[in-house]
């Protein structure tokens, strides 16, 4: 019954905001940019030890990035990011 209970639970969640809105940035925005992580640590929660330690990385404009995240089911989730 766990899967049925989970479906019922998800069906009762409050709706999130729409993916797109009427307000859009200018078509040519941004022209350039980057995302920088400088010596950061990540953990699953505040009380857990860091799983990524002292991470330093720069994502440049127009660079394609793929992030693999472990899940609790011992599988991987792949997320494709476009920093441009």
UniProtKB/TrEMBL annotation:
<dbReference type="InterPro" id="IPR050173">
    <property type="entry name" value="ABC_transporter_C-like"/>
</dbReference>
<dbReference type="GO" id="GO:0042626">
    <property type="term" value="F:ATPase-coupled transmembrane transporter activity"/>
</dbReference>
<dbReference type="GO" id="GO:0005524">
    <property type="term" value="F:ATP binding"/>
</dbReference>
<keyword id="KW-0067">ATP-binding</keyword>
<dbReference type="GO" id="GO:0005886">
    <property type="term" value="C:plasma membrane"/>
</dbReference>
<keyword id="KW-0547">Nucleotide-binding</keyword>
<dbReference type="InterPro" id="IPR027417">
    <property type="entry name" value="P-loop_NTPase"/>
</dbReference>
<protein>
    <submittedName>
        <fullName>Multidrug resistance-associated protein 4</fullName>
    </submittedName>
</protein>
């Amino acid at each position: 019954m766990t899967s049925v209970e989970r479906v019922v639970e998800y069906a009762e969640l409050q709706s999130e905001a729409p993916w797109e809105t009427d307000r859009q940035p200018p078509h040519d925005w941004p022209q350039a940019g980057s995302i920088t992580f400088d010596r950061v640590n990540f953990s699953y929660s505040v009380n857990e030890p860091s799983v990524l330690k002292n991470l330093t990385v720069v994502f440049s404009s127009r660079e394609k990035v793929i992030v693999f995240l472990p899940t609790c089911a011992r599988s991987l989730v792949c997320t494709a990011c476009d920093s441009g």
